[in-house]
Amino acid sequence: MEKVKEFEEYIRTVISQLPLEPEEREELREEWRQHLTDRMNDLLQQGYARSEAIEQAIRRFGDADTIRSEWMKARPPLRKLRLIRELAVWIACLAAAFVGPALLIHARYDFVFMAWTFVVLLACGAFYHGCIRRIAAPAIWRVLLPVMYGGFAALLLQHVSLKDAFRQMLQWHPGGDGLFTIPVIHLLWAVLVFGRWSSRTARSTRRLAALKSSFRYWSMILSALLIVNTGVFSLPAEGKVLAVNVFLLYAFLQETIDSAALLRVKNKWKIWLG
C-alpha cells in the first residue's frame, strides 16, 4: 500500500496520545491508512488534484482531537479489559490446580494445592504486570528474546543432557512435572505464535505481535525456573512443580486470551439473561 506523507503525519498525531500497545498501534495505523488512501483514490477519480484529494481525505476523516475522543469513548477502558483477562486467567489456573494433579500425576486433592496456587498467581501477576509488560520497545524484545530462551536452555541442561533434551522433545507422557515439560512448553509456544500469525492484520503487525508474545512467554518461563532453582524460596518438591506449571499456564493464557472478545460475550450474556 502506498504511504502518503501527509497521512502518516496525521495518523501519528492522532495515535501518539492513545493508550495502545505497539502491535495495537500498528494495527490501527494500518486500518486508518487504508481508509484515508481509499478516500483519496475516490477523490482522484472524481477529478481532484492529488494535493487537494489528500487534504480533503484528511478533512473528511475528521479533526485529530475529535477522532481521538470518539475512539476513546467507543473503546472499553483498557483497565477494564485487563481486569477481565486477569480474572479469566486466574479462574483457569485455579481450575487447573484443582483437577490437574489428579489427572496428570494421580494425586489426591489437597487444599494446599489451591492455597499455594493463589500465592503463585500473585507472584505471576507481579512479574508479568510489574516487570515484563513494562518492557514495551520492540527493539528490546528482539535482543532479549534469544537471551530468555538461552537462559531456559542453560538451566535445562543443568539437569538433563543435550541428547536427552532432544529425545524428550519427541515424546511426552504424564508425569511428576505436569505440563512443564520440554515438548509441552514448545507446543504451547507454537500455538501462541500461530495464533498471532493467523490474525487478519498486516504482516508487520503479526510479526510484532508474535515477537511480543514470545518475549513475554519465555520471560515468564525463565522467571519460574529461576525461582525454583536459585534457592531464593525454600519450596518442597510439590510446591516447585505447582509453581512452574502455574507460571507456564499463566503466561500462555495472558498471551492468548482476547479480553475484548470476553467482554463481548459478557455483554451478550447480560442481554440474553436480562
- Alpha carbon gap, first and last residue: 46 Å
Q: The biggest beta sheet, please?
A: none
Number of domains: 2
Helix content: over 70%
What does the average pLDDT come to? Answer: 81
Relative strand content? under 5%
Number of strands: 0
Rough outline: elongated
Element string (H = helix, E = strand): HHHHHHHHHHHH
Number of helices: 12
Structural class: mainly alpha
Radius of gyration: 23 Å
- Enumerate the spans where pLDDT stays under 50 for 5 or more consecutive residues: none
Keywords:
mainly alpha
Outline of the structure:
The protein has 274 residues and is mainly α.
Secondary structure elements and their pairing?
Layout: H1 5-15, H2 22-45, H3 50-61, H4 64-74, H5 78-105, H6 111-132, H7 138-156, H8 162-169, H9 182-197, H10 203-229, H11 237-256, H12 259-273
What report would you give on this structure?
The protein has 274 residues and is mainly α. It has two domains: 5-74, no CATH class; 78-263, no CATH class. The chain is built from twelve helices and no strands. It has helices at residues 5-15, 22-45, 50-61, 64-74, 78-105, 111-132, 138-156, 162-169, 182-197, 203-229, 237-256, 259-273.
